[in-house]
Design goal:
Number of helices: 11
Largest sheet: 8 strands, parallel, barrel
Radius of gyration: 17 Å
CATH superfamily: Aldolase class I
CATH architecture: Alpha-Beta Barrel
Length: 216
């Protein structure tokens, strides 16, 4: 089962310095526990601030001697600058194919096909049709959500397991997102999901416990 920790430092208490450090500590924990992907999703940061945070996140992952991959949300330029493993694209961002073209023009990748092949591109999807589009655009995986009702968010419209089943018919791994818990994760896997993505699931729990139960 693939596990993707999506970050949101604003969910931590304290001032900005404290939230930043708690986020980096959580990234270290996630890497040490073998989380497959960490999606750095700090949308309010400037490019310079995001680059600084991304560099620190890469150091934490490397220090853990982990195979965890760091993906930068929506910013291929930042991902390239810090040597991240890839990017995660919103539905309104450029296409995975365009991202690969950007990387092909970069000296680090233009002469190294194996590096380009290893580039990871995740895509946020909200319907099975969008998963099909992500697959045809050569994305590495799609994140479909919300599958379940999100706690405390009135007015959300969960897609449910039937839409997840439809999405999982395409030739691309699909990670289930939205209202994920240890209790309902198994039903997503039974519906065909390749894994689970979440924010609170990881930030609000001991990641070692979550990873152990979901991976086994």
């Amino acid at each position: 089962m693939l596990l993707c920790y999506i970050t949101d430092r604003k969910q931590f208490s304290g001032n900005e310095a404290i939230r930043r450090e708690r986020l980096l500590d959580t990234i270290s924990e996630a890497a040490a526990c073998g989380t497959d992907y960490i999606q750095l999703r700090e949308k309010d940061l400037s490019a310079r601030q995001l680059e600084s945070l991304s560099r620190e996140a890469m150091v934490r992952i490397q220090s853990a001697r982990s195979s965890t991959k760091l993906l930068i949300n929506s910013r291929p330029d930042v991902a390239l600058a810090v040597g991240a493993h890839g990017v995660h694209l919103r539905s309104e961002d450029i296409s995975p194919q365009d991202v690969r073209k950007i990387y092909q023009k970069c000296d680090t990748y233009s002469q190294a096909r194996e590096k380009l092949a290893a580039l990871i591109i995740g895509v946020s999807c909200h319907t099975a049709d969008e998963v099909a589009e992500a697959a045809s655009a050569d994305a590495t995986y799609g994140v479909l959500g919300p599958i379940f009702e999100k706690s405390g968010l009135a007015g959300t419209h969960p897609l449910g397991l039937e839409e997840l089943k439809k999405a999982c018919r395409y030739k691309i791994p699909v990670l289930a997102l939205g209202g994920m818990t240890l209790q309902n994760a198994q039903s997503c896997i039974e519906a065909g999901a390749a894994g689970i993505a979440g924010i609170r699931l990881f930030q609000g729990n001991k990641i070692a416990k979550i990873a152990a139960k979901l991976k086994n």
